[in-house]
Design goal:
Layout (H helix, E strand, L loop, with lengths): L1 H7 L13 H20 L7 H8 L7 H4 L4 H7 L2 H10 L4 E8 L5 E7 L4 E4 L10 H12 L3 H8 L7 H4 L6 E5 L2 E5 L2 E2 L2 E2 L3 E5 L4 E5 L10 E5 L2 E5 L2 E4 L2 E4 L3 E5 L4 E5 L13 H6 L1 E4 L3 E3 L2 E10 L2 E11 L4 E4 L2 H6 L11 E3 L2 E7 L6 E7 L4 E4 L13 E7 L23 H5 L11 E8 L4 E9 L1
Antiparallel strand pairs: 1-2, 1-27, 2-3, 4-5, 5-8, 6-7, 8-9, 10-11, 11-14, 12-13, 14-15, 16-18, 17-18, 18-19, 19-20, 21-22, 22-23, 23-24, 25-26
């Protein structure tokens, strides 16, 4: 700007007087305005945008909301892909925790936690989707002809009469891949949905993506090779709930779903009598990505009874299923009937093993060499959760002796940022001090539905 002012106020140093023509003055004025406009369109005045993007990419995500208010340029930069690609290159990405809760009014609400600042943010509500057009027309028709009893029976097959209308995503599956959250299927007005919704944290909004090939509820999800897999679940058939053996995979880059071979449920095929085969229905009770394959524990059920029958393993290289190792399938801890949860930490498979006591539980780790589950020393502090606050714990250290077949030394989640370790403080030398509270939130009677991590 100094140079421009010098040009505009320049006085001739030569002795001969000269005049500036009107056309030349207009030309200079246009040049001046053009330069001024160019300065104003830059992200940061007097800096090339290449450098400004480098600066914006280093801003902590917790400040992005306010930073978007600075200017349209900043908003465009912070909601564009270039800035976040640069964050990955610079190593400035941050891992946030996203939790889905169900409130008393049967409303599903997402919250995000920045574990460094311990600040919570509420996400936009998921869209209030409706059932498929055919189902809506059918219900309207029955109501018109006075057959409300039939419509009420369909609406209330899962319990309370209007439950499925109040929770359009009842029984939905949750997954996180490629920096986005995905909500798949579930029930809406007693109809299993095919729809898939994606939350993009960069633009802080939900959008609908390609649907699954079939409507599913209570299906299991897993991520392998940056692709999202769904298996099993149930759908609504003429005879009631029908368990599914089919599976499919979603590629977030192409936005396309592809079917993969269905789960054989081989153990369900060798039941001793045809009566049991007809009575007990096979169902997937969990799924995890472990050592380059998908491991799916399975059960046979006849509500409300579940019988564990091991599980099966999907190999993406051969595009086929094989039986799960016996020790893994038979020893996989169950959180409750029909639910087997797990998590991968530093390449190891961990599962929660609830105790008969109300105030304790144990963590087990799978040893693939021995095909067995080992118990980690130290109780999970469930007794500390019996208050009005919902606490989130971070496993900051796993210590055990070599006698138990585990490597000694600390083990921390590869999906948790290094900064979280500072929050844990100095670890106690005792084996029982494995857990540290990293965040508190007043949750009231809210129920935790899902917990995911996004690194962007």
């Amino acid at each position: 700007m100094g140079a421009r002012l010098s040009l505009n106020n320049h006085k001739a140093s030569c002795s001969e007087p000269f005049e500036v023509s009107q056309s030349e003055a207009c030309k200079r004025q246009k040049t001046s305005h053009s330069f001024w406009d160019e300065e104003n369109t830059r992200l940061i005045p007097n800096l090339p945008d290449e450098i400004s993007i480098q600066i914006l990419a280093r801003i902590p995500r917790i400040w992005h909301f306010k930073a978007k208010l600075v200017s349209k340029g900043w908003k465009a930069a912070l909601t564009g892909g270039e800035c976040y690609k640069l964050r990955k290159e610079l190593g400035t990405t941050e891992e946030w925790l996203y939790i889905l809760t169900k409130l008393d009014g049967e409303k599903l609400v997402w919250h995000a936690l920045d574990p460094v600042s311990c600040i919570w943010q509420r996400l936009p509500l998921m869209p209030n989707v409706a059932a498929e057009d055919g189902m809506r027309r059918g219900l309207r028709l029955w109501n018109m002809v006075g057959s409300s009893i039939i419509a009420d029976a369909i609406r209330g097959w899962l319990g309370r009469k209007d439950a499925l209308e109040e929770i359009p995503f009842c029984g939905c599956a949750i997954g996180a891949v490629n920096g986005c959250l995905y909500v798949m299927g579930g029930f809406c007005r007693a109809s299993a949905m095919k729809s898939v919704w994606r939350y993009d944290p960069i633009v802080n909004s939900w959008s609908e993506v390609a649907p699954m090939s079939i409507g599913r509820a209570y299906c299991k999800t897993g991520v392998l090779n940056n692709k999202l897999y769904v298996v099993g679940g149930v759908t609504r058939g003429r005879g009631g709930l029908t368990p599914l053996q089919s599976a499919e995979v979603f590629d977030p880059c192409s936005g396309v779903w592809t079917e993969i071979p269905s789960m054989p449920f081989s153990k369900a095929q060798v039941l001793p009598t045809a009566f049991l085969a007809d009575l007990l229905k096979p169902i997937a009770t969990g799924m995890t990505s472990y050592k380059g394959k998908l491991y799916v524990p399975q059960s046979l059920y006849c509500w409300p009874f579940f019988v564990d029958v091991g599980g099966e393993v999907y190999d993406p290289e051969t595009n086929s299923w094989v039986e799960m190792p016996v020790g893994m399938g038979e020893g996989w801890p169950a959180k409750q009937a029909g639910t087997k949860l797990s998590v991968i930490v530093d390449g190891e498979l961990y599962a929660l093993d609830p105790s008969s006591s109300l105030d304790s539980a144990r963590i087990k780790v799978y040893d693939d060499q021995d095909d067995s589950w080992k118990t980690i020393e130290g109780d999970v502090p469930i007794r500390d959760l019996a208050d009005s606050e919902s606490r989130i714990y971070l496993l900051v250290s796993l210590e055990s002796s070599m006698e138990n077949g585990l490597d000694s030394g600390p083990s921390t989640s590869s999906t948790i940022d290094e900064n979280l370790r500072d929050l844990s403080g100095n670890l106690s030398a005792s084996l029982g001090n494995l857990w540290k509270v990293i965040a508190n939130r007043s949750a009231g009677s809210a129920e935790l539905v899902s917990c995911q991590i996004l690194d962007i």
